[in-house]
Amino acid sequence: MRSFIIRLMLTMFALLLVAPGVAEADAISLGSRLELFVDTYIIEAMEGCSLKLHPPIPAETVLKFDAPWEGEYSAYVTVIKDGELYRLYYRGMPEVGGDGSASENTCYAVSADGIHFVKPDLGLFEVHGTRDNNAVLHNAAPLSHNFAPFVDNRPNVAPEHRYKALGGIASSGLVAFVSPDGIHWSKLREEPVITQGKLDSQNVAFWSESEGRYVCYLRTFTADKIRTVSRCESDDFITWTDIVPMDFGDTKPEHLYTNQTVPYFRAPHMYVGVAARFMPGRRVVSESTMSELGGDARYSGDCSDAVLLTSRGGTRYDRTFMEAFVRPGIGANNWTSRTNYPARGIVPTGHNEMSMYVQRNYGQKSHHLQRLVMRTDGFASLNTPYAGGTATTRPVTFEGTELVLNCSMSAAGAMWVELQDAHGTPLPGFSRADCDEIVGDEIARKVTWRNSSDVSSLKGKPIRLRFEMRDLDLYSFRFQ
Predict the structure, then answer these.
(1) Within a 10 A sphere around the Cβ of 416, how many other Cβ atoms?
(2) Lower CB count within 10 Å: N or C terminus of the chain?
(3) Is the pLDDT of residue 200 over 90?
């Protein structure tokens, strides 16, 4: 009873001290959403620690573009986690042609685990003399060139419009498609819905839960003829705003061939893009070597990798990391033109892992799709070396009763979390001294202070979090 009374008195004292003179409107409202350490938005100060990029780990080949209607020029892959299924869409293109070539088809594969994909014989179209194929769009040039579907999560969307897609190039504009099942597609209308932009690569759209509208990230060029990304918005998927170029801050302009921007499935207010960074004219593989690889010599003169983009909505990308997120890797096959292009989609493939997918060996007979694996939330972390360090957030408010961390550390590592008022004063009962040492490697580790995880007394009040860490990666946190 005595310890209960002391705890109650400390909690009441904390309520009196929380952020005197600081309005809730001055703090970042977190609610119960997950926050990733992919940018410095939430961080006010760091000492002895820094943000660290965590490139995904290459895994197995999940799809070979080896059917007669697919081939070495298949491209613009989309992977969607849809309930218990993983749906995969891509352009089949067995021979070189201009954008919108008549040889282009939209193909489909499906998986129960995101690893083992099957190409079903759908029988929808006759392609290359057979109906035993996986085409979901055929004889639709130029709309199969970059057909990019998504599941529409807009509240109360009509069942027959649950799946949507955009496809087309500058001469046709982007035409909207709908489907009740992700397999049988029809045009929403004959006229294009977006006509601005270059549009000659994968243009991705989705329903934004946080912004309450559809958004589309599409291919444009800068005045200096550098491939870049612009954005437009719509309330109904038919009428779209004028496109606006994305702002990359003060970073060096780079050719971004695709952007692959999607809401992160655990934190939909955060958009994550794994963009194909194109290096035109940067030759690594000679024409003769490309021929020896069984590829088209015309696709030997450039190279590519992939970089991480993040956004919190609007027309700003954060380029926290200019380093490659996905490197080409060992072997000449992946140092040729237009290979290493990421698929649209980052999907959970286990409780502790998520996956993305990358095209390898473009323009070669060995062209295939490879899975890459990451820790859940593991794009980047707040990293602290063995010497230790601290990081303090800006003032925030939250909803929930517990603080949960996604963290990894060495056997010698450790962490403590101090909750402070908005002015940086430790709150009674939640100081560094009160925090129980955090040791281990968990996706959802509850923080406790003197064996209690209850932070409900601080709900809705402006506070700061101060992390003290040693030999550790902190990937995300949330109040829940």
Answers:
(1) 20
(2) N
(3) yes
